[in-house]
């Protein structure tokens, strides 16, 4: 039974297998037919599903190739993103397919949709349009035409659009539009306009057609039609993308028709929507503003136009200068005229601009780098036949005098072949001004040469000649040639009126020349003349002259008049009357009014506890107390002097006096200690020898000669008690040779003396003279070595001078720490006010160079408290203090100091202060203050052009920070053109900033 069932099962299976084979053979063909039918019915999804199933079941390569064509075509028709890739893969697999034309068309269309015009054109060119369907042929032609247009192939685009416009129902109107567009782009307005007018009536083309009609009318110069069409467009499409261009065309057309108000209105609408306006239009807008008196807006518009790169830019600079003039902004006006003159695209504009530049500079000054003179010369050279030539010639002298660049002015005059009287007058003034500038810059030889030249010119300008005498006298005085100084001051006074600007100062200086030559009777006369002539009784010179009058009376032993003069001096300057009060007390002592002297000195010390004469007052008080037999009180005073002023030049005398007072008051041990202290501190001085001799008397009085002998023996060779005859003769012979001016011979003699007597009585004298000889020979190392020996000897005879010279050498060698220490030492021991002043100023300079800001402030404060500080020293102190205060974060105080210094831009510190103030304002983002500071500096001018250049760079930075890149560039370009300095940092600053502003 089982076997039968098995047989039946096998038979059934065989029958089923035969039936399935028949069905599978028929099914793929049916699937292909169904898929193709769905493809033709544009049921692309169904077609793809069915054809995919067909491909899975079929092995018919021909039908599979056809199925693949329909599959990729379906992806194309569905707009799938990978359709292009699939189509190209199909071509790669079936390169000989008879569907190639359709496939290439499809691939071209995918690139067309991607706006890849070059690839689209390539694939379209691979298809033969004749093998495409009629609908495809229209699409092909349109897409080919549009791609050609976008790819810049206008001729082919025009041909295809022309065919389509005549024969295509589907693309007839768009083809006509683009045909008109290509005609328009090629200037074929007669062919474009009829089409555009027809299309204007079609809603879908009205906006663009109207826009092209406006452009066509404008380009054909039909301004009225431009305005009519433009207004129609704006009323219909106020917010379209093309509206901005229409506003521009309207503004341009109205301007050209002379309707400035409508030109401005439309141009302003145009500017509201663009950040990159056309320069030509901005120039026209600026002219419209200018014509209506709106100069500020004219300036703003011209910043988009003005440049030095083309003719339009040059015209823009010219109009910009005229606009700034109307706004009374002469500084920016001259910048614009300068730029226009430097541009050479239109010579008439260059001439007009250069003329304006010269005239403004002549009228208002402010020529930062002497460019006004250069510009005047340039104008006369380049435009000799100009209608402005006579006018420029007539103001040349004034231009020369207005310049702060005296060297440039003098060179310009020297280049004039036949200068007239007016120019020679200017030359004499400029020589005088150049001399003053060189004097300020401490170039005394050059200054003297300039003053000599001014004097030797004669009397073209008598005031300049007289002033040259005065300043030449100042040079002679500073070099201690008092007789020459006296002659020049006297000549000045003889030729100048009492209203002369330096008349009273000349009287004052003349008094000092007599005083320095110890002609006290003449000095008295001169100082009294000065006091009578001086109108400013608050001047430090006034009280100082009264003190000198007192000194002259004192030398003449007219004590009552001397006391009277010192009292007048104290009354004239009560805050700085320490010298007057001291001298008045001294005179009382000379009149044997010792109680009055003590009282006056007590008052003086109470009023001026920091006075430089305090140690003198203590010493004189002790002497007065001795005369009053108040030796105990005198002792106390001397003890205070030695304690508080151990470095005073009076310390050794006070020590001797104290030893004597202790002895007189039966205090031998204290007397011995005082004398020994003098010997210890000043081992080789006259006072040391006096102390040793006095000790002998004290020890004798104590009946202790053995102790005295022990002490003397303990001194060894370091202290010479008295000079031997050979010691004295050897030194005096060397000194005698030195005094006769035989420096080389005396040098050898002093060295022989020191070899024989290294610790001789006159060793410090010999070292001082050797130091002087080396210093004069510019052998500073040897000089310094000898001056240090003098300083270390502690001999007060040459201490001041040795410290002055040693500190100066250390300073010149840039050993600022050592120089500071020497100046500090000098300040403690200086025997006169002049040396104290040298010490204070030296400490200030060293502290500044060592960047010790607190020390700088302290030193400057001390200097500025002085009663008779020269203007130049006061400015230097404030200059350094200002910078240190800025470093210490005290900006307001710093600027106050720098502002005071900046008032005199003739000095290098004044010019640098101007820059530093502007820089401080800029860094603090006070841009308006910084701008105002530099503009004022430029107007004032300075001979120190480096600092002017730095200030102009700051001004450019200010404008850049304020967003005004145009002005920043304008100033940098002008600086680049006009600055004659060769400093690399300036060139780098300019180039870096100009690059950043592009």
Oligomer: single chain
The Rg value, from CA coordinates, equals: 51 Å
Unreliable stretches: 1-25
Secondary structure: helix percent:
over 70%
User: Could you tell me the strand content as a percent range?
Assistant: under 5%
What shape does the CA trace take?
Answer: elongated
Number of helices: 53
Mean pLDDT: 89
State the end-to-end distance. Answer: 107 Å
* Main beta sheet strand tally, sense and closure: none
The number of E-state strands comes to 0
**Class derived from helix and strand content:** mainly alpha
Your description of this structure?
The structure is a single chain. The protein is mainly alpha-helical and 998 residues long. Helix 19 crosses helix 21 (389-402) and helix 51 runs antiparallel to helix 52. It is elongated, with a radius of gyration of 51 Å. The termini are far apart.
Short key terms for the protein model shown above:
998 residues, elongated, single chain, mainly alpha, 53 helices, disordered N terminus
């Amino acid at each position: 039974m089982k076997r039968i069932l098995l047989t039946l099962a096998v038979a059934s299976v065989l029958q089923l297998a035969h039936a399935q084979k028949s069905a599978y053979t028929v099914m793929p063909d049916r699937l292909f037919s169904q898929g193709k039918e769905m493809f033709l019915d544009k049921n692309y999804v169904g077609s793809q599903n069915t054809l995919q199933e067909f491909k899975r079941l079929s092995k018919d390569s021909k039908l599979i190739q056809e199925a693949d064509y329909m599959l990729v075509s379906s992806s194309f028709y569905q707009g799938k993103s990978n359709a292009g890739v699939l189509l190209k893969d199909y071509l790669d697999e079936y390169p000989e397919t008879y569907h190639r034309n359709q496939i290439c068309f499809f691939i071209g269309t995918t690139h067309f949709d991607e706006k890849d015009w070059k690839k689209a054109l390539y694939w379209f060119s691979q298809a033969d349009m004749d093998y495409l369907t009629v609908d495809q042929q229209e699409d092909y032609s349109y897409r080919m035409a549009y791609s050609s247009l976008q790819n810049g192939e206008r001729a082919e685009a025009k041909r295809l659009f022309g065919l389509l416009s005549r024969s295509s129902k589907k693309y007839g109107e768009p083809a006509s539009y683009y045909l008109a567009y290509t005609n328009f782009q090629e200037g074929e307005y007669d062919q474009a306009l009829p089409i555009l007018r027809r299309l204007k009536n079609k809603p879908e083309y009205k906006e663009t057609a109207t826009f092209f009609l406006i452009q066509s009318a404008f380009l054909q110069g039909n301004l009225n039609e431009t305005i009519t069409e433009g207004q129609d467009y704006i009323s219909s499409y106020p917010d379209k993308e093309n509206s901005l261009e229409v506003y521009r065309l309207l503004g341009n057309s109205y301007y050209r028709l002379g309707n400035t108000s409508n030109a401005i209105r439309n141009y302003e609408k145009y500017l509201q929507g663009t950040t990159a306006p056309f320069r030509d239009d901005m120039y026209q807008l600026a002219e419209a503003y200018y014509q209506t008196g709106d100069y500020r807006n004219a300036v703003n518009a011209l910043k988009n136009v003005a440049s030095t790169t083309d003719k339009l830019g040059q015209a823009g600079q010219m109009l910009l200068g005229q606009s700034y003039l109307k706004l009374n902004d002469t500084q920016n006006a001259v910048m614009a005229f300068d730029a226009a003159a430097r541009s050479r695209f239109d010579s008439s504009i260059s001439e007009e601009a250069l003329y304006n530049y010269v005239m403004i500079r002549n009228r208002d000054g402010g020529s930062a780098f002497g460019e006004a003179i250069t510009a005047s010369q340039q104008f006369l050279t380049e435009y000799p036949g100009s209608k402005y030539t006579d006018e420029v010639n007539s103001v040349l002298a004034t231009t020369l005098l207005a310049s702060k660049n005296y060297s440039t002015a003098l060179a310009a005059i020297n280049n004039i072949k036949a200068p007239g009287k007016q120019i020679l007058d200017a030359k004499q003034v400029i020589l005088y001004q150049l001399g003053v500038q060189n004097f300020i810059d401490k170039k005394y030889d050059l200054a003297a040469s300039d003053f000599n030249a001014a004097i030797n010119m004669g009397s073209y300008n008598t005031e300049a000649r007289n002033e040259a005498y005065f300043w030449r006298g100042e040079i002679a005085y500073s070099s201690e040639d008092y007789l020459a100084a006296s002659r020049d001051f006297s000549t000045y006074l003889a030729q100048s009126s009492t209203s002369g600007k330096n008349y009273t100062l000349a009287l004052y200086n003349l008094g000092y020349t007599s005083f320095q030559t110890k002609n006290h009777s003449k000095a008295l006369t001169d100082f009294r003349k000065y006091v009578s002539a001086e109108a400013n009784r608050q001047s430090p010179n006034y009280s100082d002259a009264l003190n000198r009058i007192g000194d002259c009376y004192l030398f003449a032993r007219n004590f009552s008049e001397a006391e009277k003069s010192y009292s007048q001096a104290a009354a004239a300057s009560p805050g700085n009357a320490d010298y007057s009060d001291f001298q008045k007390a001294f005179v009382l002592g000379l009149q044997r009014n010792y109680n009055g002297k003590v009282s006056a000195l007590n008052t003086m010390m109470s009023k001026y506890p920091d006075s430089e004469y305090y140690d003198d007052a203590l010493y004189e008080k002790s002497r007065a107390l001795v005369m009053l037999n108040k030796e105990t009180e005198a002792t106390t005073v001397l003890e205070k002097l030695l304690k508080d002023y151990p470095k005073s030049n009076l310390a050794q005398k006070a020590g001797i006096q104290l030893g004597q007072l202790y002895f007189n008051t039966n205090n031998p041990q204290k007397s011995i200690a005082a004398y020994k202290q003098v010997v210890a501190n000043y081992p080789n001085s006259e006072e040391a020898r006096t102390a040793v001799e006095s000790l002998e008397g004290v020890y004798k009085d104590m009946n202790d000669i053995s102790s005295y002998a022990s002490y003397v023996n303990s001194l060894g060779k370091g202290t010479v008690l008295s000079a031997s005859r050979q010691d004295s003769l050897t030194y005096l012979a060397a000194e005698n040779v030195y005094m006769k001016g035989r420096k080389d011979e005396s040098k050898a003699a002093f060295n022989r003396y020191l070899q024989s007597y290294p610790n001789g009585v006159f060793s410090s004298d010999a070292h001082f003279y050797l130091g002087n000889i080396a210093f004069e020979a510019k052998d500073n190392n040897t000089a310094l070595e000898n001056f240090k020996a003098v300083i270390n000897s502690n001999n007060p005879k040459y201490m001041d001078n040795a410290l002055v010279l040693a500190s100066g050498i250390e300073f010149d060698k840039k050993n600022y720490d050592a120089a500071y220490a020497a100046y500090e030492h000098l300040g403690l021991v200086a025997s006169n006010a002049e040396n104290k002043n040298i010490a204070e100023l030296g400490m200030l300079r060293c502290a500044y160079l060592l960047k010790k800001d607190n020390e700088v402030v302290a030193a400057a404060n001390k200097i500025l408290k002085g009663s008779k500080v020269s203007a130049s020293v006061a400015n230097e102190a404030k200059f350094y203090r200002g910078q240190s205060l800025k470093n210490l974060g005290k900006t307001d105080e710093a600027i106050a100091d720098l502002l005071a210094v900046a008032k005199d831009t003739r000095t290098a510190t004044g010019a640098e202060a101007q820059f530093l103030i502007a820089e401080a304002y800029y860094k603090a983002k006070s841009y308006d203050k910084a701008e105002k500071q530099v503009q004022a500096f430029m107007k004032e001018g300075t001979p120190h052009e480096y600092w002017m250049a730095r200030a102009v760079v700051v001004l450019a930075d200010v404008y850049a920070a304020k967003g005004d890149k145009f002005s920043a560039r304008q100033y940098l370009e002008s600086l680049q053109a006009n600055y004659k300095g060769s400093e690399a940092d300036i060139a780098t600053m300019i180039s870096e900033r100009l690059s950043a502003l592009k």
